Amino acid sequence: MGRLDGKVILLSAAAHGIGRAAAIAFAKEGAKVIATDISESKLQELEEYSGIQTRLLDVTSREQIENLAKEIERIDVLCNVAGFVHHGTILECEETDWNFTMNLNVHSMYLMIKTFLPKMLAQKSGNIINMSSVASSIKGVVNRCVYSTSKAAIIGLTKSVAADFIEQGIRCNCICPGTVDTPSLRERIQARPNPEQALKDFLARQKTGRMATAEEVAHLFVYLASDESAYMTGNELIIDGGWSL
User: Fold this and answer.
1) Is the pTM of this model over 0.85?
2) How many independent structural domains does the chain possess?
3) Catalytic one of 110, 147, 223, 231
4) Residue span of the signal peptide, if any (predicted)?
């Protein structure tokens, strides 16, 4: 028996990093996973895992989300993972950067929740897991102005949904990782003028001496998706190796 046997889980940003690790972890625990992303080639690699089906989805498109919703009869867990990390202070954040980040990181979750929550309400049960970050209202982080703002908004969104629908069988939590060793992080490091120093800087702020793995964060996703966490809602769960202490 898997910890997620019989559960239908819809997941965004499943082609890479934490989203990919979570999709695989969900499937290994017996869930039926609908893994979505805009990266078709990387997404198709997930189809080798039993229990995972894939769909192309731009989470900033209301039309695409609504079309996907028509295909899905039941949804037990909605995982909103898609996001973007902008590097810079408010003075280095142009209006286009601000709008892009807030649209992808926050507005996409609004669209996904607003579309799929009615299905959960009709079932009288549902579970929403949002991806936030320690870089948010939890901790001030240099050069993460709009990113931290967006992730703080996600904590607020999570608590609002949890409070509004707790009596209707819905729970909503968010995961707040610290620095996670993912392909996107490695790409951002390589894009810096001095990648070697950038990596050293990331490692220097880790009190454990290392970054988290995507699989470690995926374990927390599994816990929140399972009935083991049935009494938890409205929480921001920190997994950062003590960075925020």
Assistant:
1) yes
2) 1
3) 147
4) none
For 64, the token pair is 């695409």
Report yes or no on 189 lying in a domain.
Answer: no
Residue 173 makes CB contacts below 8 A (sequence gap 6+) with: 128, 129, 130, 158, 162, 224, 229, 232, 233, 234, 235, 236, 237
Question: How many angstroms separate the Cα of 235 from the Cα of each of 98, 171, 195?
Answer: 26, 10, 35
Tokens of 121: 């309400």
Residue 201 falls within a domain, yes or no?
Answer: no
Helix (H, G, I), strand (E, B) or coil at 143: coil
Residue 65 lies in a domain: yes
Residues 6+ apart with CB under 8 A from 144: 85, 86, 87, 135
CATH of the domain at 144: 3.40.50.720
Mean pLDDT per 10-residue segment, the chain (245 residues): 95 97 98 97 94 98 98 97 96 98 98 98 98 98 97 98 98 97 87 88 88 96 98 98 94
Which residue range is the domain that position 55 belongs to? 8-180+213-239
Q: How far apart are CA 218 and CA 230, in angstroms?
A: 18
49 noted as active-site residue: no
- Note whether 135 and 179 are within 8 A (CB): no
